[in-house]
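Case study 2.
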Amino acid sequence: MDNLGSYAQTEVAGMSEAELESRALIKTASALNKVKENWPEDKEELQQALDKNRRLWSVLAAAMREEDCPQPAEVKQNILNLASFIFQRTLDVSAHPAPEKLDILININMNIARGLSGKAE
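Prediction:
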């Protein structure tokens, strides 16, 4: 492993779960935003970015369903509702691609990431 890879692993190992989730949300929002900003040139990357976002939200939704999830019931339900919306929007964007349809997915990810990192808008 190179020094950069070793550093990255050490950095990630020292992060809290909320920090990791925040970074993952930002990373997927960035991938979606890249497609949106470079439309139609990067349109081929749309499905890959949508799949990445869907997988992330699948993990978040699954975590909310775990018996030992420490989140309050209201937070769990809100995340599950957002996940359901994300999945529906992903299907819509896949069927009828348009760059402006990515805005809500990007905004949700960034707002949740801000909340996880403790940074208000």
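Residues 73-95 form the longest helix (23 residues).
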